[in-house]
Amino acid sequence: MTMGVSARNLAQGIATAAAMFVALGTAAALWTNPLFMRMTPTGGFEIALLLLQSVLAGVYVGLPRNPCGKRTAGAGAIIGFLGIACPVCNKVLVLLIGGALLLEYFEPVRLYVALGGAALLALAVWLKLSRPECLKAA
Description:
It contains six helices and no strands. It has helices at 7-27, 46-62, 70-84, 91-97, 99-106, 110-130. It starts with 6 loop residues before the first helix and ends in an 8-residue tail after the last helix. The model has no long low-confidence stretch (mean pLDDT 89).
C-alpha cells in the first residue's frame, strides 16, 4: 500500500498542528496572554492533551486529502477544545448550562471530555490509514 504523502501534505500537517496548538492554547488561556484570561486554574493535563490533539489533527491533515473521517476529526477537535478550555470562560456553555452547573458537573469530567476528543481524532486518523481508498487524494 503506497501512501503518497507529499512534501506539501507534510508541510500542511505540521502547519495545522502548530497553528492548532498556538490558537487553541491561547484561546483556552493555557498560558498568559493579553487576549484571554482563564477564570479557573488548569488541571495540569490541558497542555499535554492539547499537544496530543494538535499532533493528531496535523497527522490527519497531512494525509492525502479525502473526506474519510472528516466529521469524526471535526467533532474530535471541538470536543477536545471543550475539554481543555476553561468551563466558565465559554460564554455559550455558561448561557446554556449556567456557571454553577458547569463548575459542579462539567469541571470534574473535563479530562475525560478532552480524552474523548483526542480519541475521536485518533479514530479519524485510523479511518484514513486503514482504508486504502482513503489514502488516495479526492
